[in-house]
Amino acid sequence: MANRSYLYSADSMPNEAEIPQRIRCISEHNRDVPLAHKLLVGRGTTMVPSMIWNPPIGIAADYAGGAALLRDLLSAVGEGLEDDAEFAACVARTTAHLDKQQAKYFVLETGEIVSMTDEDPAASVRRLVAEDIPDAVARAEAAIAGQNDDWLASVRADWQRHFASFYSDALYFSFPG
Question: According to a count of CB atoms within 10 Å of the terminal CB, is the N or C end of the chain lower?
Fold first, then answer.
């Protein structure tokens, strides 16, 4: 089994007492937390209890803000990939799925990813929230504003790794309802 990051949407954040009533599947990505997942949880980012694992290693964020950020970056990346039909199809699938599964919050589950190292999973997620996600957001914002062309070119050159996640109504960990 591949270790994956899992992205969901919900109308409330998980808390100590319960998980959200309606959880919608967004995406899963093998072996890491891709740039797209980091950007989608890049607005109003906070640690929450996991909906899957016991440690408090979930990440929640504003859905509308994260989706807008990803769309803006995909547009900037696409300016250099106008003739790439595969990229265009990936963007169309991704944005259609985000529109379909829209809710108030994104919830990112990284338990399988952060457990691949010897580091404490909660410490790994705290670092994601405090450093990795804000860094990805800052780089994306600069690239969108035309101020980070080298980074944008590197993302464009390896767009599959950053954006070609599995988007579906059912993920390996899906929730009833």
Answer: N
CA nearest neighbour of 47 among 5, 55, 24: 55
**pLDDT in the model for residue 177:** 60
Beta carbons of 58 and 130 less than 8 angstroms apart: no
CA angle 163, 79, 161 (to 5 degrees): 20
Residue 6, classed as helix, strand or coil, is strand
Q: Which residues contact 62 (CB under 8 A, 6 or more apart)?
A: 43, 44, 104, 105, 106
Return mean pLDDT, the chain: 92
Alpha-carbon gap, residue 23 to 11, rounded angstroms: 8
Q: What is the pLDDT of residue 176?
A: 63
For residues 133 and 174, the model is more confident at 133
CB 50 within 8 A of CB 143: no
- CA 22/CA 11 separation, integer angstroms: 7
- Residues recorded for the chain: 177
Which among 15, 165, 153 is positioned nearest to 90, based on CA atoms?
Answer: 165
